[in-house]
Amino acid sequence: MSRGRGGGRGEGVRGAAAGGRRRDGDRGAATVWTAFAVCALCVVFGAVLALGQAVAVRHRAGGAADLAALAAADRVLWGEQVACAAAGRVAAAQGAELVECGVAGAEAEVTTRVVRGLWAPAVRARAGPAAPAPHPRVPHPPAPHPQTPQPPEAHRPAPHSLVSHPPTPQPPVPRGGVR
User: Fold this and answer.
1) Residue 35 Ramachandran class (φ > 0 left, ψ -120 to 50 alpha, else beta)
2) What is the spatial order of strands in the sheet that 97-104 belongs to?
3) pLDDT at 116 over 70
4) Which one of 22, 88, 100, 132 has the minimum C-beta count within 10 Å?
5) DSSP labels, 47-70
6) Backbone dihedral angles phi then psi of residue 111, each to the nearest 5 degrees
7) Model confidence pTM above 0.85
């Protein structure tokens, strides 16, 4: 007994007229789409890893440049050659190479490069003594206007002191109020 189209155990089989072969054209399409999705995810994952490596190499070069500039600034009083030699030692200890080094006055400026894989960023840093702090402004009280009358000395409030004065006695108020 046949249950109609697509029902029963023989789904996809059209009987002896079809030679026992399946005629479903979409069979296996999900496998192809899954393979494409996996490949696309692998490409995205690889791009994220490459970007992460580039950022990490840039940060390493920046740290090496900062430390090398500080080392050079520490030795700037001994001359440019000694300062740059110290910067080169510090950069090498950080896994970087010293590309450029210069001293101008009390400041040192260095450029370092870190090479990792495809990435080779060069970072410049400068170090030297801190600028002197500006003197804080002390606000002065405004000068009195020459035409403004000044109160006499007796009416000026007394400066605050730590000595306590007894309160001034007030006349008693009658209980029924003032009449």
Assistant:
1) alpha
2) 97-104, 107-113, 122-127
3) yes
4) 132
5) HHHHHHHHHHHHHHHHHHHHHHHH
6) -130, 130
7) no
Letter string b/e over residues 116-129, b meaning 16 or more CB atoms within 10 A of that residue's CB: eeebebbbebebbe
Confidence of residue 150 (pLDDT cuts 50, 70, 90): low
**Could you tell me which of 33, 110, 31, 27 has the C-alpha nearest to residue 73?**
110
Identify the pLDDT of residue 146. Answer: 62
Q: Which amino acid type is present at position 176?
A: G
Output the CA angle 141-145-150, nearest 5 degrees. 90
Containing H/E element for 37?
helix 29-74
C-beta neighbour count of 49 within 10 angstroms: 10
Token couple for 43: 């490409």
pLDDT reported for residue 149: 60
Mean pLDDT of all residues in 23-47:
87
Q: How long, in residues, is the chain? A: 179
End-to-end Cα distance, the chain: 121
Q: Which residue has the tokens 């696309």?
A: 40
